[in-house]
Amino acid sequence: MTPPRHGYAPGDEPESATRSTTDEEGAGRHAADAPEPVLAPEPAASAGLPADVPAAPAGLAVPAARSLLGPAEIRDLAEMLGVNPTKKLGQNFVIDGNTVRRIVKVATVSPGDTVLEVGPGLGSLTLGLLETGAAVVAVEIDERLAEQLPLTVELMHPGAQLTVIRQDALKITELPGDPSRLVANLPYNVSVPVLLYLLENFPSIRAGVVMVQAEVGERLAAPPGSKVYGSPSVKAAWYGAFRTAGKVSRQVFWPVPGVDSILIAFERRLEPLESEELRRATFTLVDAAFQQRRKMLRQSLSLVLGDSTTASEIMTRAGIDPTERGEQLTAEDFLAIARAQLAGR
């Protein structure tokens, strides 16, 4: 079976999205780290709206002084558009303005930045990004949401710089404005493949913050040797430095998800780690290593490198102990094996 180009190798997938990580399971993962702050919701806005509020495009009404959407407006929008949030599209809408502004702050978005947002949904985070004076390129796969977003933005931030692209984020080949930051509440079911695809294909993205399922985020930021270190950890490290930047309360979403969420901040390397040919070779090794993560590398990499003996020889030339396991190697270690492999052809 051909290993996946992006995301998880078979056997290295996160737990089901219907199950959250327990305290017992999470204990000891980052024992040296200080407890992560939890982004709690601000007091819910009143469901009632002033009678003299001007009507928004397509019937939305918001208080004149508000620049972000509240719980009432988000539910009104969803009802108006006939949107019933689905697990298939990973739709959980942020309904808390305090959380939106915290995400934007962590992402250090500034006036003049061009920000890429994937899965803007009803526009909660989009409005927070535009509030800073940044331009936003929003990629939305749902036609109803893509058509409504510019109308909502024009009502609440007239003249804001928004470009909406109605497309699957995994099929985009070009983006206007060369976005320098990625800030998004990524759909949980495709978060890692989307993140890696964007980093591979759009080098203008230098930094960003994404909100993902907590278990997935911990894997992205995990160091070698960690219990949750896996193929997403290595592939993320190929592009740059990833870190956790705060857990997020389930109560800031509608509908409330069955899993915990976390913010992951990243900064891209100033220069690519290596060529595209070596990236592909390295990622193939990574996938093979974590398909059989309990085995020594001379065994797990034998199918990719020829056989166990050849794998041992190549790894020895690369300065890597053939009895190591994938969870002990850095991205640079896997790259060294890929170099030795290609040099021996």
UniProtKB/TrEMBL annotation:
Span of domain Ribosomal RNA adenine methylase transferase N-terminal: 99-270
SUPFAM superfamilies assigned: S-adenosyl-L-methionine-dependent methyltransferases
Alphabetized UniProt keyword annotations: Cytoplasm, Methyltransferase, RNA-binding, rRNA processing, S-adenosyl-L-methionine, Transferase
GO CC, any one term: cytosol
GO molecular function: 16S rRNA (adenine(1518)-N(6)/adenine(1519)-N(6))-dimethyltransferase activity; RNA binding
Documented EC number(s): 2.1.1.182
Localization terms from the record: Cytoplasm
Residues annotated for S-adenosyl-L-methionine binding in this entry: N92, V94, G119, E140, D168, N185
UniProt cross-references to Pfam families, sorted A to Z: RrnaAD (PF00398)
Recorded coiled-coil stretches: none
Biased composition (Low complexity): 34-50
Catalytic activity: adenosine(1518)/adenosine(1519) in 16S rRNA + 4 S-adenosyl-L-methionine = N(6)-dimethyladenosine(1518)/N(6)-dimethyladenosine(1519) in 16S rRNA + 4 S-adenosyl-L-homocysteine + 4 H(+)
Keyword ATP-binding: no
Main location: cytoplasm
Region (Disordered): 1-50
Main EC class the enzyme belongs to: transferase
Protein family: Belongs to the class I-like SAM-binding methyltransferase superfamily. rRNA adenine N(6)-methyltransferase family. RsmA subfamily.
Job description of the protein: Specifically dimethylates two adjacent adenosines (A1518 and A1519) in the loop of a conserved hairpin near the 3'-end of 16S rRNA in the 30S particle. May play a critical role in biogenesis of 30S subunits.
PANTHER family per the UniProt record, alphabetical: DIMETHYLADENOSINE TRANSFERASE, DIMETHYLADENOSINE TRANSFERASE-RELATED
Name of the protein in question: Ribosomal RNA small subunit methyltransferase A
Source organism (scientific name): Cryobacterium cryoconiti
Lineage: Bacteria, Bacillati, Actinomycetota, Actinomycetes, Micrococcales
